[in-house]
non-reducing end alpha-L-arabinofuranosidase (Tothia fuscella), 509 residues
Amino acid sequence: MATFTKISEDETPTITVNSKHVLSKINDNIYGGFTEHMGRCIYGGIYDPGSPLSDSDGYRKDVIEAMRELRVPVVRYPGGNFVATYHWLDGVGPREKRPRRPELAWIGVESNEFGTDEFLNWCEIVGTEPYFALNFGTGTLDEALGWLEYCNSDKDTYYANLRRKNGREKPWGVRYWALGNEMWGPWQVGQMTKEVYAAQAYQWAKAMKLLDPSIELILCGQDGTSSWDTYVLKECIKWDVHGLGGSTTASLIRMHSIHIYTASKEHLPNATAPKSAERAIEITAGLIDLARIENKVPNTVPRQTICFDEWNVWDPVRAPGEEGAEEKYTLSDALAVSVWLNVFIRQSKHIGMANIAQSINVISPLMTTKNGIVKQTTWWPLLLFSKYMRGHTIAVHVRCSEYEGPTAPAWIRGTIETPWLDVSASLNEAGTTTTLAVVNNHEHRSFSTQIEGVDGNSIEVYTVTGKGVNAVNTEDKEEVGIVESTWDGKDLFEFPKHSLTLLRWKSGS
Ligand code: AHR
């Protein structure tokens, strides 16, 4: 959480941070990824058997290394829109027997060369947890139950034995399962009304939990500000006692998924757009509470959280999905991603998981080429946050002037503030180190700022910036990266124009 006092442009800004004011745990899963059968994400991304850069299973070694460097804790799969016509059985067993199928989400052909076991094996190599989305378009409940059995069962039953036959004795233990993806969308095969969706989701959830009570189910929401969200939460967040041993703490649904992509051609609307996600999180958290109150869910049932399982900067006109959505990210986009990450830290109380869409090649900070990997501008804030913004959110107050121009969407103005300095702060798990993240979105002005609560005289400084907001990274040139320095903690700290800065110091030193 951050609070804000607006001052005039000519006053000196102040940021006040206190490492004792611990607010909420930052779930590591906010640094989640997403790999969809779309464009070059799977084929040519994580799986590239023809490449000299791949291992003997066809996995790109440089991608594995990058995912490890980013410490990605969880990865969503296999879609996205792709999942609405995906039949998991097509993608297991001997490769030569797997059917090639028309693919309707991105209008292509799916070879099924890469499927459940290949993905789960990749997750084990990377050291990340899988998160599966179920086919609510052309799929059936039987199929979904079969997939869960295949992945998680240690019993002597048909699909568990099929997994063994395919070479995997031990269950894979997939904990997270999404009840469909964007089923409200007119582009979705099998688009549903909220009424039909809620009824189906609830019944599928019940059956899935009966088969494996240890799983965590994620409800398909919209963007957190819609009547779809309101309705499906009300229908599905209940006190679920039936069939679950009569437990008074049972709930079928653990998280509610929402998706938002932000983008604008203009720098300031672009960089401030993730503030809409912040307001959406606040609204969704209210809707979750409303459902719990109206349905009389006792407080022994843990409060459901938000699974922001698609977020990023994406303009689908600029980078169409059918063409692989290979966005070329600028410094402006890196600042937008920094604001996105500040939002997740500030709102950590409500966020159970967040997944950048996507992890490789498709609207991604990481691009594979024949020769290696390109780290786009957006990679650097993601890396800094994943490395340093873990543990707990701590309270921070910012006094500064505000950007007052147009926003995208327009409704940001009047519902949430857009200070020039966008801030969040964290205290690491051990309680020893405080990190302050500050995005200065101003294109032309640095801000010399008083920082109250900073300790010590050798503060680590990490800066992400570039020559201008249109700077990009390509295979030949890296215009945006991380510059490391130190600060003596005295006087004012200057946040450069169009930059992200992380300040790190030992708490209480
Ligand atoms: O991430 C790209 C696409 O965006 C996903 O497939 C879909 O869920 C969303 O509309």
